[in-house]
Amino acid sequence: MPSAVITLAHPFDFAGWRAATRDLAGRHVPPDAITWQVAAPGETPPAPVPGENCQPFSIPREMMQMAADVLQSMLPDRFALAYGLIYAHVTGTPPDATALERINEAADTVRTETRHLRQNLFTLMKHEGEDAGWSGTLDSGTYAPESNARFITYQLSLAPWRLVLPEREICWNGTNLLHGPHGAPAPLSFGCLPPPALPLVTDLDIERITSLRAVALAAKTCLICPMARQATQTVFGEGQPGARMMFVGEQPGDREDLAGRPFVGPAGQLFDRALEEAEIRREDTYVTNTVKHFKFQRRGTRRIHEKAGRDEIRACAPWLAAERRILRPQVLVMLGATAASALLGRAVTIGRERSRPIGLDDGTTGVVTVHPSFLLRLPDEASRAREYARFVADLRLAASHVMPAGT
Ligand code: URA
Predict the structure, then answer these.
(1) For a designed S-S bond to 369, which of 216, 294, 295, 394 qualifies (C-beta 3.0 to 4.6 A apart)?
(2) Residue with more model confidence, 163 or 267
(3) pTM of the prediction?
C-alpha cells in the first residue's frame, strides 16, 4: 500500500524528483510504497515535507545521469523506474533486471533523440539565421527538447526561439523560458530541467573554439559516442601550439587511456625511438589520434584493443578537424590506415600511398606511413629491422617538407 504520494511540477521535473528521492531513498522507502504523479497544468504541487531519520547518501555521477536520462523518456512509470535504480544502490539490493533493461533502453532512445535534435537544430538555425531568432517544428517522442532548452538558449542562440512539439511547445522569448500547450506556454525555470543526456559539446561548439587548450578541455566532457562512456578518459592530442609537424595515430591504447596522453605505451616508445633517429624532437611536434577514446573488449581483467569503427571515427572527426584548423601544421603525418582514411576521406592502402608527399586541401603536405604498432606485430627480426628503417625514412621525408623557421 503506497505510503507516499509525490506530486511533481511537470512531466520532466528532475529537481522535484531528485529532492523527493533524496528524502525517500534516504529513509529506505521501497519503490512500491510510492505513488508518483504530475500536477495538473497551472496547479502548484505541495511543498515536500522531509521525513525523519533520513540518511544522506551519495550516488555515482553516471547513475544519476542515467536517472536523469530516463526522466526525459515518456514512459508512464519513468519516475518509479529512476527511483528504483537509486533505491537499489542506496540499500545495496540488486536492481530489478527487467527494470534495468527498460532503463537502458529508454536512456538510449533519449540519447539518440538528443543527437538528432541537435543536428536538426543546426540545420534550422543555419537556414533561418541565428541572430534574427527562429522557430521550428519537431516530432519528438521524449522530453529531450525540454532538457536541451538551456543548451539551445545559451550555447547556440541567445535570440528568441520557439519549438513546436507534439501537444506542447517550448520557447525562449529573450528573457524567459516558456513551456506548455500550443499557444499557451507558461514560464518554466531552467533549474527544474533534467540535465541533457549528452554533454554540451557539438560540432558547432567545436568549430568556434580557437585555442588548442580550450579544445582539449572541451573534449574532456565529450560523450558523443558510446566509447566515451567505456574509456577512462579522453586522450587528446598534445604538443607545441606552434608545431609545424602533426602526427595522427589511430586511437589511444590501454596505457594511453590510463595515462591520458597519446603514444606513451609500447607503440609510443617505438615511435619515440624512430623520431629520435629521424632527428625530430617530439616536443617540437603535435601528436594526436584520429579517435580520442580507447575502444576495447573486456576479457577477464584484460582490455583488448578493438579497431575504431566508422561511427566512432565520424563522431571524433570534429575534434581532429579542430586540431588541424587551430594548429595549421605544415606537415601532417598519417600513422596507419585509420588516420590516412580519415584524413584523406577515402579508403587507403598504405603500401600504395606511403613515402611520398601528398598535397592536402588546406595547403598542408601529407605523408602516409605505417602505424608503429604494425612494426611491433612483425614476426621476425629481419622484417622488423627493414620496416623500421622504412618508417624512419618516412619520418625524415616528412621532416624535409617543413620550411625552415622564418621562411
Ligand atoms: N596507438 C595509437 O594509434 N595511438 C596511441 O596513442 C597509442 C597507440
Answers:
(1) 394
(2) 267
(3) 0.57
Q: What is the 249 CA–ligand 1 centroid distance (Å)?
A: 5
Residues 281 and 355 in one domain: yes
Pocket of ligand 1 contains residue 257 by CB under 6 Å: no
Residue 262 is assigned to a structural domain of this protein: yes
Q: 231 and 374: one domain?
A: yes
Residue 31: which domain range?
4-116
Closest alpha carbon to 285 in 234, 337, 323, 336: 323
Query: Do 242 and 333 belong together in one domain?
Result: yes
Contact at 8 Å (CB) between 142 and 72?
yes
Q: How far apart are the first and last CA of the chain?
A: 81
d(C-alpha 400, C-alpha 405), whole Å:
13
CA angle 182, 188, 189 (to 5 degrees): 160
pLDDT given at position 61? 86
The last residue of one of the domains, among 116, 131, 152, is: 116
**Same domain, yes or no, for 286 and 324?**
yes
Pair 251, 329 in one domain? yes
Residue tagged 505513488 (cell numbers): 35
Please state the domain count of the chain: 3
**Residues 271 and 371 grouped into a single domain:** yes
Quick check: is 198 in a domain? Answer: no
Model pLDDT for residues 167-214, shown as the tens digit of each residue: 999 998 888 899 999 999 999 888 888 888 876 566 667 787 788 987
**Mean pLDDT score, 74-78:** 97
**Mutate which of 246, 250, 261, 287 for ligand 1 pocket (most atoms within 8 A of beta carbon):** 250
Do residues 177 and 242 share a domain?
no
What the block records as the C-alpha cell of 306 is 578493438
Q: Is residue 202 part of a domain?
A: no
In a 10 Å sphere around its CB, with 0-12 CB exposed, 13-18 middle and 19+ buried, how is residue 49 labelled? exposed
Which ligand 1 atom is the nearest neighbour of the CA of 268?
A: 7
Q: Are residues 160 and 20 in the same domain?
A: no
Per-residue pLDDT for 232 more than 70? yes
Q: Is residue 216 part of a domain?
A: no
CA of 222 to the centre of ligand 1 (A): 19
Question: In 245-363, where do the E strands start and end?
Answer: 245-249, 286-289, 296-299, 302-305, 331-335, 357-359
State in Å: Cα 372 to ligand 1 middle. 8
Cell 625552415 sits on residue: 404
Question: Are the C-beta atoms of residues 212 and 252 closer than 8 Å to each other?
Answer: no
